[in-house]
Amino acid sequence: MSNRDTHDIWNGEAGRDWAGNQADLDHFLGDSMEVLLDLLPLAPGAHVLEIGSGSGTLSLAMARAVGPEGRVLGLDVSEQLLALARRRGAGLDTLDFRNLDIQTDELEDSGFDLCASHVGMMFFSDPVLALSRLRQHLKPGACIAFNGWAGGVNPWFSLPLQVAERHLGPLPPAPVSAIPPPGPLAFADVTYVTGILERAGYAEPTGGQREIAIRHPDGLEALMRSIAYVGPISTLYRLKQPDPAQKARIESEIAEAFTRFVQDDGSVCLPAMMCYYTAVVR
User: Fold this and answer.
1) Domains (range + CATH), the chain
2) Beta pairing, strands 268-280 & 203-216
C-alpha cells in the first residue's frame, strides 16, 4: 500500500513550516518528548532507530544518551526536515539521518536495541504493515516506544479550529472507516493501537493517556506564530484560502481565547493529553 499522501504533505508546505519553526516546536513539545525519553531504556552503546525523526531533536537527545559507542539512525520522508536534522547533527559520527519509509522501502540495517518515535508513528497508511516491517530490524528483547495525540483536552488544536470554523465553515468530515486515517489523532484510541501492535507481532503492548503541558517562554507571541501551521487549522486554511482580513479577524479571536493560558512571567502553558505506547520484540 502506498504512503504517497503522507510523503506529499511532508515534502510540501507542512515540511517547510515545521523546519522553519523548529525552535518553537521544540519548546512546545519538550514536555511530551521528556515523557517519551523516560520510557526508553537508553544505555551507553545502544543502537537506536527513530521513526519520523523530523528535525532531529529526539535523535540528538538519544545520541547524547547512548554515547560514543552507541548509534542512532533517524528515518523520515521530508527532505526539508532531513536537511535541517543533518545540519543540527553535523559532527556527530554516531548519528545518521536517512530518507526512508519503513512501510514501503527496504532498510538494510538491523539489530537495533530499541526504536522510538515522537509524534511521528501515526502517519502510515497501513500501520500494521509498517510496524511488522519495522519489527524485522529490531533485536529479540528490543523495546519500541512512541506517542500520539489523545482526544479530549488539547486546546492547542481545538481552540484555533473552533474559532476558524466559525468564520470559514467546518472541515470536511473524515471518511467512515474502522481504520483511522493517517494524521495527528490516528493513534488516539489506546485499544486500537495496542491491537495493531499485537497484530504486527509485538509482545506486551501497553498504552495509556498522560497529561502533559505545552509550554513556551515567549508566551502568546510564540503561540500565535504556531497556529497557522500546527494542527487542523493549517488544513482548514489550505482548503478555504481565507483572505488577509479574514485571517486577521480569526487570529485576533484566537489570541483572545489563549490569554487565559499566559502565566505571570509572560510564558504560556497549555494542558494537553498524549497517548504513550510501548511493546517488546520476542
Assistant:
1) 4-151+177-217+271-280 (3.40.50.150)
2) antiparallel
Strand duo 203-216 + 112-117: pairing: unpaired
Amino acid at 84: L
Identify the CA nearest to 112 among candidates 198, 201, 46.
Answer: 46
Look up residue 158 and give its amino acid.
S
Number of other residues whose CB lies within 10 A of the CB of residue 91: 6
Angle (deg, nearest 10), helices 232-240 and 13-20: 130
Distance between CA atoms of residues 190 and 60, nearest Å: 28
For the segment 12-56, what is each residue's pLDDT rounded down to a tens digit?
Answer: 888 888 898 899 999 999 999 999 999 999 999 999 999 999 999
The mean per-residue pLDDT over the stretch 134-139 comes to: 98
From the list 149, 57, 65, the residue with the least C-alpha distance to 74 is 57
Task: Give the amino acid at 170.
Answer: P
Q: How far apart are CA 207 and CA 32, in angstroms?
A: 15
272, containing H or E segment: strand 268-280
SS3 at position 104: coil
Percent of all residues in the chain with a pLDDT value above 70, rounded to a whole number = 99
Contact 100, 115 (CB under 8 A): no
Give the bridge partners for 216, in sequence order.
Answer: 268
Q: Summarize pLDDT for 60-86 with one digit per residue, the tens.
A: 999 999 999 999 999 999 999 999 999
Is the pTM higher than 0.85? The answer reads: yes
